[in-house]
Amino acid sequence: MFCLQTAEKIMQHNSSCLGLQMVCDPLLKEKSFGVAEGGRVQDLRAMAEAAGQSFPGFTPPGGETQEQVRLSLNITFYLSFSCFFSFSSFLGGADDGVRGTPVHALVVTHGAYMCVAARYIVEELRCRLPPGVDEVRMFSLSPNAGLCRFTLDIIKQGNRFVLSGIRCVFVHRAQHVQ
């Protein structure tokens, strides 16, 4: 619910979103934390430690595994290529090193989901880490309202779109909420 509200506010107050339609993908939902749902992060960390597992890779009983989240990301990522490029002919105007990029997608999701997404993008899609960012920072939980920006190079091969390159511009930025 908070992600939807955040996306709506961004679209209302950002001139580069004028005339755009929001698309909500049910696969990009909040990660299920099972018995820990609605609890505090420090309690989840304690559960992971008690189970002898690392955090944030820990899956509480009844929760969604990292692999389940990864599968959702994979499906969403590749289905989105067709959607973005079939309906997008506008020029964007994003700052932070991507001005002039022809197609933009704003994905608003939860920090735990972004943590898995960052790992997927680096490990599966072979994205290099941005300058000054190590794997610990890259794969950490994104702070509330944290921003990550990636640029994707997409080419059309036959009747499908294929990722030909990906770059991380920044990760877990939170200055906008200070």
From TrEMBL:
Keywords on record: Hydrolase
Listed GO biological process terms: negative regulation of glycolytic process; regulation of pentose-phosphate shunt
GO MF terms held by the record: fructose-2,6-bisphosphate 2-phosphatase activity
InterPro entries hit by this protein: His_PPase_superfam, Phosphoglycerate_Mutase
Stretches assigned to coiled coil: none
Recorded GO CC terms: cytosol
Protein name: Fructose-2,6-bisphosphatase TIGAR A
Organism of this sequence: Kryptolebias marmoratus (Mangrove killifish)
